[in-house]
């Protein structure tokens, strides 16, 4: 056995929690573990031992994108097998992220980073998102809810938590394609403003405003939250869904200060975001290929910043298994539309996106991330309901 194979035998034996077969580049196969084989890993060419030791996330992610590494079996379940092994590299992301320089999220850089991901094209996203074009965790109230129904549930759940009243002003930071602000205006009669850094999202959101005859009630701007705060604009309610992950660790305090400054006294804000149990950087593969500039804040970082800014936490809810189910739906929809995807994207992109969706699903199911909705108020607010009963009444 060559030195390369000796290294991979040791690496793979310690990576999975299930029995795995490995087919090497010379055609030979080996079984690691006891009992029935759950899946097969195919190594079509040798991969640099040095690169794997330096950063297995980046090295193996790129190897999969380039077809050097392949799998026979469900990719999500294979990655879950690695996550379930608490000693595997997937549970030690922070060790490897320390070798990279972290760049500050300036206004210009934030815009570039967001457009890299969200301006892949509305036609592309519409192939595998539901018809609300919601690109964030859904809320499955019932076991058999469709993805579309679950996304409607999510928007409804958030709007109820905000305790909206007719005539109030609402800001949505990172409004996506506009579903939440459209529904807020239609159902609650608020005046809603959404901001995004994606030109594609701006275009689609404006089309939807016209389709729903909501001109004058809903407005979408191509703007950064820091730009709005500089203009001293004020709102009764502020919501942000899946955006704070893009601001970067150094800007978390700026975000919280700006929300404080833009909220009217007693105002309510809801922050819906991916959370980490402890502080640490996102792995390099995700930052390089999926979310440049991304950082997942820990729960205690966010709650501490709320306290620092006289923002009172009144509710926190974990939706971790809801995001697992959402990502599972997206991954299935992506494969179901693969013939159309192939007309838009090359093989390397398709493999990258497949890995991204399945890796995220695995991470929320058995991995190291969670997702929370935090509701907090500027100063004290004695007008909010005392129980959660109102959230579950139709």
UniProtKB/TrEMBL annotation:
InterPro entries: CFA/CMAS, CMAS, DUF7884, SAM-dependent_MTases_sf. Gene3D superfamilies: Vaccinia Virus protein VP39. Keywords: Lipid metabolism, Methyltransferase, S-adenosyl-L-methionine, Transferase. Residues 7-93 form the DUF7884 domain. GO terms for molecular function: cyclopropane-fatty-acyl-phospholipid synthase activity. The active site is at residue 360. GO terms for biological process: lipid biosynthetic process; methylation. Its EC number is 2.1.1.79. Belongs to the CFA/CMAS family. PANTHER family: CYCLOPROPANE-FATTY-ACYL-PHOSPHOLIPID SYNTHASE (PTHR43667). This is Cyclopropane-fatty-acyl-phospholipid synthase. It comes from Clostridium ljungdahlii (strain ATCC 55383 / DSM 13528 / PETC).
